[in-house]
Amino acid sequence: AHVNASKADSAEWAAKRSLVLYRGAPYAYMVLGSIENQRSRPDAAIAQYRQAIGAAGTDSAYTEAKRGSYLTIAQ
C-alpha cells in the first residue's frame, strides 16, 4: 500500500523489516525493486527483481510473483 501511495520510505522500511523476519518470500524484494524503479535507479531495481526470482525458486506458490518479476525486468 505504501508503494502505491508513493510513500517509498515507509515501504522500504516495511520491506526490509519483513526480510529480517523471513527471506524466503519474493514479495519484499519486489517492493524494493518497485521503490528503486520509482527512484529512477533501473540497475538497482533489476537487482532486486532478480533476488525476488531467486527467492521464488521452484515453489509453485510463487509462480505469479516470479513471472511478474521477469516481466518487470524485461520492461
Structure description:
The protein is an all-alpha fold and 75 residues long. It has four helices and no strands. The chain has helices at residues 8-21, 27-38, 42-56, 63-74. The chain is globular, with a radius of gyration of 12 Å. The protein starts with 7 loop residues before the first helix and ends with a helix.
Topology as a string of helices (H) and strands (E): HHHH
Number of strands: 0
List low-confidence stretches.
Answer: none
Tell me, briefly, the overall form: globular
Structural class: mainly alpha
Percentage of β-strand residues: under 5%
Indicate the radius of gyration in whole angstroms. Answer: 12 Å
First-last Cα distance: 22 Å
- Total count of helical runs of at least 4 residues: 4
**Oligomeric status:** single chain
Helicity level, as a percent range? over 70%
Mean pLDDT: 91
